[in-house]
Predict the structure.
Amino acid sequence: MNAPYRLPDEFETDRYHLRRVKLDDAQAIFDNYASDAEVTRFLGWTPHRSVAETTAFLKIAAAEWVSGKGFPLVAFDRRQPVELVGMFHPHLIGHRVSYGYVLRASAWGKGCASEVMGWLVDHALSHPSIHRAEAFCDVEHPASARVMEKAGMVREGILRRYFRHPNISDIPRDCFIYSKVH
C-alpha cells in the first residue's frame, strides 16, 4: 500500500520558493491580492473586505493541510523572498489532484504560475496513487488557459455552466477543463 499523496511543507522551483500557508500570512495575502477586485475577477470568491476575512479562510486552509485534502501554498520570488507573489491550492480528490491558484497583479505575465503549476503537476503524477492532475478556468480567461497548457495540461473540453464567478455573474459560467494524466 502506498503512503497517501502529500506535498512537502516547503520546496523550490527554479525561481520560486513555496511553503505551507500560515495564519501569519493573512496581512500579506490581504494586501497583495485578496482585497484586489481585478485579481479576484475570475475566482470563486469576492474580494476580502478585511484581514479577518482572510484569516478565516486561512483557518479552513490550515485544516485542509492537516486532513490531507488540500495543500495551500504561498509563493515567493527567490530574488525577493519577503514579497508574497500568490497562492497555489492543490486539492486531493481520490486519484486526482485539482488545482487553483491566484497571483498578485504585478506578478502576472512573468511565468510564475506556469513554472509552479508545472512543478506541482509533475510532482503529483510522480506519486503512484495519482493518475490525473486537473484545473479549469473561465472560457473568457485566456491567460489562465495558457498557464495550464504551459504546465503540460491538455484542454479536454468545455464544462457548461460549471462554475460561479461571483465577481462576474451570479449565473454559473462555462469553463475550459484541462488535465494531464498518466
In short: The helical segments are 26-34, 51-67, 112-125, 142-150.
